[in-house]
Amino acid sequence: MQNNIKLLIPVDFTGATLQTIEWALSVFDENPVEIVLLLAREMEYSMTEMILYKPKPFLDEVFTNDFKASIYKLRQTYTTTLAKIHVEIFHGNTVQAMKNFLEIYTINCVCLPPMGFYKPVKDSFDPRKLLQKSKVSIIEMPVYAPSEV
């Protein structure tokens, strides 16, 4: 029995993320793939903010209905390849914190959108540098990759 490939893709809830997901699914088309959509957020610095922090309202704000509909469409299109897809929030700003995150979610590979295509949403940042320094296998979507999303 083959284990799923676990891919991490930074999410900005735009077409760039959707294109990266579809491209990654085409690359791994012979294998079941679990995709972890990574939203990297700045750490809350006050103790009160950390205690009262709830990610759901923030996710509800940035995870639009259009993006959800596009994910649903991808699930319908890639029924045999896309085993699971979910969003996880990363709070941290160090390479070790990123390595821990990758280990916790047993990530096999990272798929990055082309340089300059990722646009961080409110209170988030592009995790590219942390991921590159984490010594995880990374593939970057070519700029010319076709997409039908």
UniProtKB/TrEMBL annotation:
<protein>
    <recommendedName>
        <fullName>Universal stress protein</fullName>
    </recommendedName>
</protein>
